[in-house]
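R.M. (postdoc): so does anyone remember the format we settled on? I'll just put the structure tokens first.
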């Protein structure tokens, strides 16, 4: 009767399995985190700087996340002026007429892409409810 060769445990297989699991984990974290914020290359609005001197930020585009605290004014040509709570401060945001189809109510949370116009007013470029 022939004897079978005993298979010995090879540490190479263990290292390959651990390496494969590590690569899969790191890859999944990279792809899941990169797809979550489509505006990740846009700078976050520095609210204290805006409140101190909005003119220094003119012409720039920023992103901000906040909760609508009040509706201040409405004009069919200019849009809606709303108050948004961002970073424990309340800032005025002009929602342009292109976003008239979106129902904006007090207490709703939104993600804004804002442009500081030449007068220092924050105008919406993009708007998404959270």
């Amino acid at each position: 009767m022939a004897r079978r060769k005993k298979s010995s445990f090879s540490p190479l297989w263990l290292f390959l399995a651990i390496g494969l699991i590590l690569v899969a984990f790191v890859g999944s974290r990279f792809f899941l985190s990169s797809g979550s914020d489509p505006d990740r290359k846009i700078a976050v609005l520095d609210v204290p700087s805006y409140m101190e001197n909005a003119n220094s930020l003119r012409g720039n585009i920023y992103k901000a996340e906040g909760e609508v605290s009040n509706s201040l004014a409405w004009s069919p040509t200019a849009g809606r002026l709303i108050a948004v709570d961002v970073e424990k401060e309340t800032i005025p945001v002009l929602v342009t007429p292109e976003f008239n189809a979106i129902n904006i109510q007090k207490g709703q949370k939104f993600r804004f892409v804002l442009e500081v116009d030449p007068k220092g007013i924050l105008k919406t470029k993009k708007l998404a409810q959270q």
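R.M.: ...and that's the designed sequence above, right after the tokens. Also worth knowing: The mean pLDDT is 89. The domain at 47-129 is CATH 2.40.50.140 (OB fold (Dihydrolipoamide Acetyltransferase, E2P)).
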